[in-house]
Design brief:
This protein is an alpha/beta fold. The chain has helices spanning 2-14, 182-189, 194-197, 225-234, 273-285, 333-353, 370-403, 417-422, 452-461; strands at residues 21-24, 47-49, 56-60, 63-66, 68-70, 75-79, 84-87, 101-103, 118-121, 147-149, 158-159, 166-169, 171-174, 177-179, 198-199, 203-206, 260-267, 293-306, 310-324, 355-363. The termini are far apart.
Length: 480
Amino acid sequence: MKCLFLLLGVLQLLAAATAVYKQWIPNTNFETGSNWDKGRVPCASDVVHFEKNKVVSVFVRSPHALTDMYLPLNGELVLASGAGFTAFDGSWDPGCDSGATVRFADMEHHAWFDPMLWQAVSPGRELEPGGRIFSVDEERVPCHYDDVIFQPETSFRVNVDSSRRVIHLRSISLMGQELSSPEAWASYLRGPSAPLQFHGNGTLQVTGTSCPDKSGCACGNTPDGHRICTALLGASGRQCPVPACRSPLQPLGHCCRVCGATISLDFTPDFDLQKYRDGLVQALLSQPKYASVRMAISKVHKARTFLGVIPRSSTPLIQIVLIDDEVGAQTGTAAEQMAADIMEDIAQHGEALGISSGEMEVATGSTFSGQAGSHAWSRITVEMVLGLLFGLLLLGGILFLYRKAKLRLPALHLPWPWDRAEDPASPAFPAPASDKGFDNPMFDVELPSVDAGEMLQEMASTDHQVFYLNPLYDASETET
C-alpha cells in the first residue's frame, strides 16, 4: 500500500479543491415533446392550450405556425432570436393533419429535492462519467457549497419547498449567466422571471463562497432528507430493493440499505478530503480486481445518543461507502476486500494522511460482518451498563437521604424491611407516649398533689417502670 501514500504526496502538488456542479434536468421549453400531453410538439393545425390558472415560463427557440393558442393569465414566453408565432394559413403541412388540442403539461410537481432531476457535471459543464464514483442520495441534490446550473436557452419551473427557510448555494447559472454574489442574485430575484421559475416556501440564497475546510464540508441536506427519499421512492410507489445480504448497511445520507462495506474515519486538521479521494481512485479503485466496485466518500455528521435513544451531539467524520456489482453469495465481497486494503493502509500511514482512527462495517451475500456487530454491540453494552450504574447510584442516594431524615416522601410510606427489625413495637402493643402517666378525660377529678422530690424517688425505685394514677381511687390506696 506504499503506492497510495506516495501518490498522495504527488497529488498534494497538483490537486486543488474542485467545485461541484449540479445541473437541473427538466425544462419547460416549447420544443420539448414531453412537455405536452400528446407527447409531441404542436404543429400548424393544432390548437395550443395553456391552463388559465397555471404559472409558466416557456422558452421558444424557433418560429411556429398555429391554428390558435390560449395563454395563461400569469406567465411568459421567452423568444430566442428569430423565434415567434404565426397564424396557420390552411396550407398542407406534411405530418400535421390531426388538428388536435395540445395542452401544456403541469410543471408544478418538479421538486428541488428530487435526486432524479439533477445530474453532476464537470467544471467544463460536461456530464461526469457515472459508475465508479457515486453520491449518497442526500448529496445528489445541490449541497451548501455547490454550483447550480440551469442550461442556457432553457426555461424551467421548480418547487423549492424545504424544511429550511434558506437554501444556501455557492452560485447559480441561468440563461448562460453565472450569478455568484449575494448582490447579483438579489437583483435577479427582483426581476419578472424569478417568481415564474421558483415557487414554494424555501428561499435560494447565493453566498459566493466555497467550502473553507480542506477536510471537506457536510452537504447540509439532512433536514430535507425525508423529502429526498419521498421524491426518490414514494412518488412512484417504488420501494427500496431487497438487499442480497444479511444485516445490510445503512450509510448516512442514503435512503436504502446496501450490501458491501462502509468505513468511518476520524480525522485530524491535516486531512485533505479531495487529495485522499483522488489517491483512493488512482491507487485502488482503478485496479482490475475492483472493476465492479463503486465508491462514495464525503464528510457527514453522525448523531451521538445516550442509551441509543436520547440525542446527545453530532460528530463530523469521513464516510466511505463501497458497493459492487457481484451477485449471489459473492455480493459485497469485492467491496469488502477493497475496504480491508483501505484499513490496512490506514494502519500503516494513517497519521501521515491525517486519519486518527477508522471503523469498518461489512455486509456480504455469504456472511455478515462480525466486526460490525462487535462494534455496535460494544457501544450498546457500554451505554446500558453506564445507564444501569447511574440508576443504581441515584436510587442509593435517595435511600441514603431518606434514612438520614434529610429527605421526606410526602403521602407515601414505604415499608422498608429494616423498619420492622429496628422497631419491636407493633400496633397490637403500642408504647405509652410518656412515662409520666396521663389524665383520663372521662373524669373531672383533681389529681392529688404530689411533691416533685417524692415523685422522683418513686420513679427511681420502680426502676423506670411505667405507671399511672387512677383518679377513681384515693391516692393513699394507690400501689405501685
